[in-house]
Amino acid sequence: MPKKPSVIPKATDFIRMRCKLVTSARIAALFLSVLVAGCASGGDNEGLSYTADRGVENQPYPANYRAELLAFLRTYLNDPRGVREAVIAEPAQKKVGGRLRYVVCMRFNARGTDGTYSGAKQRGAMYVDGRFDRIIENADELCQGATYAAFPEIEKLTR
After folding, report:
1. Which positions ≥6 away from 64 have C-beta within 8 Å?
2. SS3 content of the chain, % helix, strand, coil (to 5)
3. 30 falls in which pLDDT band (50, 70, 90)?
């Protein structure tokens, strides 16, 4: 009598099928992430803006810029205690991403994740419609010629 074929598939068939699905899903996810990353990339001073923008050239002066900047830096810095050599410039209008924005230039030496100091770095804080929008990490060119004054409030930050 001939052997009756089993209705239950072998376990190895499920494993092969699952591996094929996982591989196809991973390839699709990788392709999609590369596609999205390509759309979001920009230059050093360009990028996503996190504040709604009216798209006007006459931006209002950021009257509360120091308080907003301190509140952000308290969460932005790995260890806000013991910041050294902190200086800040008054808000100045600069072209960022082809649009006129107020930028506050600052330079300070903060502790890294390992607790050591790596030297003072220049950063810019961009304001849109009078409100803090984002930090510009590489602001050397943007802040060229800025006049700095002491920024003791940042040196007094706590966690």
Report:
1. none
2. 30, 30, 40
3. low
**8 A C-beta contact, residue 60 and residue 131:** no
Tokens 């099928």 sit at which residue? 17
- Please give the pLDDT value at position 46: 45
- What residue ranges do the domains of the chain occupy? 9-42, 65-155
In this structure, the number of other CB atoms found within 10 A of the CB of residue 105 comes to: 25
Give pTM, 2 decimals: 0.64
User: Could you give the CA distance from residue 26 to residue 75 in angstroms, rounded to a whole number?
Assistant: 34
Question: Biggest alpha carbon distance in the chain?
Answer: 97
Confidence of residue 5 (pLDDT cuts 50, 70, 90): low
Using alpha carbons only, how large is the chain's radius of gyration in Å?
A: 26
